[in-house]
């Protein structure tokens, strides 16, 4: 046996020791503790907007695509972006630990099982409970699906800023000029932004992307604690909790031109995500065109990247750019 072989065996053995030590840390060392190991704040007291993307623990590839597209385009000291995962279990624990050590942008809800049913029902409201219990607060909290793209710059300018009590004169991207704490810079009370969907007795924001004023989020956390519904879809749950408690809120609608389901079949056929000329952009499903802020249902990574290519740091680019 050569020295090189012995060294390789030693490295392999050391790697196994580290791997099992990491697993043991999670299974015997008190469980998941991300929420106590780093602050949800980005270190700037003026941060006013938290965007929380719901993600499955094993879907690291999609998280990396999101980090490198809209989160990189619209990086700002006053926006906090996080991914929200449930307990990934022992197998994925070391990899999640490594990912979070690298990016420090994961919120782990250790009491939730990582299943599609949990993600589609109570994961979002459990996030709200978690946030309400923290010391940090924001004027707005957004819930975003990981198959949604977000033009954060335009959404803030056109929807959030006009509802803040302390408006800013910066018309380009005003977040970096906001020098108020989240407590000082408050949105209108009981405000929700999202696609307008309805049941017979109440309305609710579509789950692909909705934004809550802080008081609305905190109220939903309290209402679910008192009325722990577990069998309702997470976006419907927002309206149902309010309705059953006799509470009211203002739902500011994102029209279909702004927030929609993306379909590559409706693109213009040149390998991009742009809609064909003359396409109806006011339908529930369409491709990218003027006014697109929150396209949804990019299930494949290729579709997500084609959509992202339609945006730059200033928002939506001209569909003819580069031709």
Core attributes:
323 residues; alpha/beta; seven-stranded mixed sheet; 11 helices; 12 strands; disordered N terminus
Question: What features would you describe in this structure?
Answer:
This protein is an alpha/beta fold and 323 residues long. It is built from 11 helices and 12 strands. The chain has helices at residues 3-28, 34-37, 60-68, 70-73, 89-103, 116-121, 123-132, 152-160, 214-226, 234-244, 301-308; strands at residues 49-54, 79-87, 106-113, 140-145, 191-198, 203-213, 250-253, 259-262, 285-286, 294-296, 311-312, 315-316. It has a 7-stranded mixed beta sheet. A hairpin with a 2-residue loop joins strand 11 (311-312) and strand 12 (315-316). It is globular. The model is unreliable at 1-39 and 167-183 (pLDDT under 50).
Provide a brief overview of the structure:
This protein is α/β, with parallel strands linked by helices and 323 residues long. Helices cover 36% and strands 20% of the residues. It has eleven helices and twelve strands.
Outline the secondary-structure elements.
Layout: H1 3-28, H2 34-37, E1 49-54, H3 60-68, H4 70-73, E2 79-87, H5 89-103, E3 106-113, H6 116-121, H7 123-132, E4 140-145, H8 152-160, E5 191-198, E6 203-213, H9 214-226, H10 234-244, E7 250-253, E8 259-262, E9 285-286, E10 294-296, H11 301-308, E11 311-312, E12 315-316
Parallel strand pairs: 1-2, 1-4, 2-3, 5-7, 8-9, 8-10
Antiparallel strand pairs: 4-6, 5-6, 11-12
Helix pairs in contact: 1-5, 7-9
